[in-house]
């Protein structure tokens, strides 16, 4: 079992509702999920994707943290224990996807925890619930969804190292909200 995100960029309109829901729930000065504009020069179009922690199979944040602030649950969710964090930011530098973020107000790092209090009760994370176009989905086993794991997105050069629990549906011209 490995929880993971499925993103359908053909549905994302860049409204940032997922960012706002995350920021409000976590009471952070910045969202732990961000909407990014991707320019696909080969196909000559632009699209949005919503990114956060990918809860990687082999998380670099977990490996490099000297305080052992990260744990990986049996269900694949990578959790950061802020109380153990000293704010060294090694995890911030190590993550190819920019998921851990330094919080200047606390002097510590924080990251998406997949709204574990929600998924533990069988509900979806707030980012998923807030998406008006259903561009985000969380599944309990990302390996069962037949979507390729090797996809292009910001930070994709880290795929072979960390094996993110993220799948992005392929966009076909004419089915996306293009700019």
From TrEMBL:
Work out whether the entry's keyword set contains Repressor. Answer: no
Q: Give this protein's Gene Ontology molecular function annotations.
A: 4 iron, 4 sulfur cluster binding; metal ion binding
Q: Is Repeat a UniProt keyword of this protein?
A: no
Q: From what superkingdom does this record's organism come?
A: Bacteria
Q: Which UniProt keywords apply?
A: 4Fe-4S, Iron, Iron-sulfur, Metal-binding
User: Which InterPro entries does this chain map to?
Assistant: 4Fe4S_Fe-S-bd, 4Fe4S_Fe_S_CS, ET_IronSulfur_Cluster-Binding
Membrane-spanning regions, if any?
Answer: none
Limits of the 4Fe-4S ferredoxin-type domain = 3-32, 76-105
In Swiss-Prot or TrEMBL terms, this protein is called: 4Fe-4S ferredoxin, iron-sulfur binding protein
